Amino acid sequence: MKISYECGPCFLRQAREAMDLSTDDEMLKMEIMEEIFQFLSKNFKEDTNSNSTGSAMHNIIKRKTGCTDPYHQEKIEGNEIALKYLPEVKRILEDDGSLENYVKIAIIGNILDFGAFTLDDDIESVIKESLGKDLVVKDIVEFENSLKTHDKVLYLVDNTGEIVFDKLLLSKIKEYDLDITIAVKSEPILNDACMPEALDAGLDEFGNLVEIGCGTVGYVDSEISDEFREIFNSHKFIISKGMGNYEGLTEIDLSDKDIYFLLCAKCNTISRDIGVNLHDMLLFKK
After folding, report:
1. Model's pTM, two decimal places?
2. Which of 105, 232, 256, 263 is paired with 95 by a 20 to 30 Å CA distance?
3. What domain range is 33 assigned to?
4. Are residues 51 and 176 in the same domain?
C-alpha cells in the first residue's frame, strides 16, 4: 500500500512516542527529529510504500538512541493484561462457538490497545459490543473452505496483547487438522510480537513458531530472510493479522495464494484503500 498525505502526521506522532520511550535527552530528540525530517523530505513521495517508510524511521530512532526495544515494557504489560481477560473471552465463546465469532475475537484483539487499558476498565463490555457488530467484509464461507482444503497454514501475527486473542482462533483452526506455522518479528519494532512475547503468550502450543528475519512494521518483502521466504513461498494458505501486514503484502503478487486479511480499519488511508469505513472489522480474501 502506498502512503497518503495523512501518513505524514502519523509518522511524526509515532516518532515522538518512540523517542519519548527511548531517551530523556531533549537535545538528542531534536537531533533525531531533524534527521527524520530530512529522511521524510527525501522519501515521503506518492509512490512510497507506507510500512517500509515507517520501518526506516523507527530504525533511525533505535540507531540514534541505542535503545533497541523502546516498547519493551508496553509489550510485557499488553500480554499480561490480555491474559487476565482470556477466561472471560472464553466464556463468551462458550455461548456461541461459531467460526465467525472466533474470527471476530481475533479482530477485536487488533482493535484493543491492551497497553492502554487497566484492569479497572470495562474491557468485557468492549468485547461484547464488538462481538455484536457484523464483519463489514465477511468472507467466512471462503475462509472455512480454505481451512478444509489446505493441509497447512501460515499465520502472520501482529501486536502483543493481540496475540493472546489469536490463541483462540488458532485453537479453532487446529480443529481442521492443519499444520500451523506462526510467524513473528525477529527484531523489536513498535509493540509487534517477537519470539519472547510469543512464547510468553503460549503461541508455541498451537504451531511452529518462526521468525521473519527482520524487525519491520508489518511485512516488508525486501527485508525478510531467505529462510522465511522459503517458508512463505511454500504456503498457499496465509492468514494475515493487522494493518502493517496488509500494507506490505498488497505490494507483492499474491495471485497463487489463498490469503485472508483480518483487521480493523483504524486509519483513513487503510479505509480508503480497502473501500470501507473507519473502524470497520474485516475478514476478506485478497
Report:
1. 0.93
2. 263
3. 7-65
4. no
Whether residue 240 sits in one domain with residue 144: yes
**How does pLDDT run along the chain (286 residues), one tens digit per residue?**
899 999 999 999 999 999 999 999 999 999 999 999 999 999 999 889 899 999 999 999 999 999 999 999 988 888 888 888 888 888 889 999 999 999 999 998 887 765 555 556 677 777 777 777 888 989 999 999 999 999 999 999 999 989 999 999 999 999 999 999 999 999 999 999 999 999 999 999 999 999 999 999 999 999 999 999 999 999 999 999 999 999 999 999 999 999 999 999 988 999 999 999 988 999 999 8
Residue 2 covered by a domain = no
Q: How far apart are CA 58 and CA 53, in angstroms?
A: 9
Within its chain, how far is the Cα of 5 from the centroid?
22
Which amino acid is located at 85 in the chain? Y
CA terminus-to-terminus distance, the chain: 13
Positive/negative CA dihedral, 209, 240, 200, 164: negative
Same domain, 124 and 259: yes
> Does 188 lie in the same domain as 54?
no
In CATH, what number is assigned to the domain containing residue 158? Answer: 3.40.50.10880
**Total residues found in the chain within this entry:** 286
